[in-house]
Amino acid sequence: MQYHAFVIKYAEIGIKGKNRYLFEQALVSQMERVLAKCEGTFKFFRVSGRIYVNAENFDFDEVIAALQTVFGITGICPAVCIERDGDNKLPDINGLSQEVIKFIDGVYADKNMTFKIKVRRVDKTYPLDSMEAAAEIGAQVLDAYPEMKVDVKNPDVLINVEIREKVNIFSEIIPGPGGMPTGTSGRACLLLSGGIDSPVAGYMIAKRGAEIEAVYFNAPPYTSERAKQKVVDLAKVIAKYTGKVNLHVINFTDIQMYIYEKCPHDELTIIMRRYMMRIADMIAEKTGCKGLVTGESIGQVASQTMESLMATDEVVTDMPVYRPLIAFDKQDIVDISLKIDAYETSILPYEDCCTIFVAKHPVTKPLLPVIRAHEKNLSEKIDELVQTALDTDEVITLEA
Length: 400
Ligand code: ATP
Ligand code: MG
Description:
Blueprint: E1 5-9, H1 20-35, E2 41-47, E3 50-56, H2 60-67, E4 75-82, H3 93-107, E5 114-121, H4 130-144, E6 149-150, E7 157-163, E8 167-170, E9 174-175, E10 187-191, H5 197-207, E11 211-218, H6 225-242, E12 244-251, H7 253-262, H8 268-286, E13 292-293, H9 306-314, E14 321-322, H10 330-339, H11 343-346, H12 353-356, H13 368-375, H14 382-391, E15 394-399
Parallel strand pairs: 5-6, 5-7, 10-11, 10-13, 11-12, 13-14
Antiparallel strand pairs: 1-3, 1-4, 2-3, 4-8, 4-9, 7-8, 12-15
Bound molecules: adenosine-5'-triphosphate and magnesium ion.
């Protein structure tokens, strides 16, 4: 089948009232971004609540894969366009019916199916109205393919015929990722580790239109270059959808060693996590983020009991902490990880700074006054260590 265009469907952004224009603009600019990397030439049109991409000399699979990374798109409908003739006329109803018959033959080898023709007459100068045109095209399709049957309620195939400047014919809807276009929700700061959860959490917040600033706490020489590379690769997975991710690599070794030296070992994880949150909070502030994002889920591990979450939350002063996975089971998280192609990277067996110094029996119900008291043991050097960690922040910009 030779397609000439894609009709782009979008759901939520259709209901944004007068902001709708801005959302559509963001959606088009994201489509422009991903299609700029594809072979072919593409033109974008926004007309009466729809977005069209006219395409020439393109690779179908490449274009679909690219559009499936654009948040905001719920469906991609490959379309055939029928142009006006030299006298600026569209085909009459017989000509149009022939085009639809040809379209069906191109797309559906097996005609054993029910169908419905849906016409949208936007060009009101077209002599038949939508209902009349649909009835006539339907009749001619039945003549051409007697094995096809009409079902107006629940057809196997809905064939859309839009009569506009051109005529667009389309039937298939290829699912898009949904969500909101990148750039419509501000910026969020993701605590990104090499695990399964945080990349999924980042993807979910990005899907709501947020741009992502990521922070990784690295502990060389206890963690290797390969562990860092894994996080870089996971940041790239998110950049594939958002276009760009700044990854801040923070050297956490000295802070971790100092905590190890001064605090009870069963509280190590929780105190470490509190310092990660404090530092991420500062980076978020500096980079204009409006929230922190983590991959935590209630009860998954000792540092994610409700008491532990209270303890990590406490140190974040000025912004919300978003935890999109908070009520997810592990398998649900794994399913998303697989879907976004993060899983294979996440399960690579490189060490994580959280697991290096972990106590055999970490506290699962930390008491805030106790934790606060033990953190006082750090007062001599911790501010300086945090400042040094921030000063040596290595920013890696990943672009899709
Ligand atoms: P993940 O699969 O995302 O690593 P996890 O199940 O291993 O999560 P924890 O180790 O308790 O859980 O970490 C909880 C959250 O803290 C992570 O989801 C992540 O957002 C953040 N985090 C943990 N370690 C790091 C790190 N080294 N750098 C940045 N963020 C981290
Ligand atoms: Mg982890």
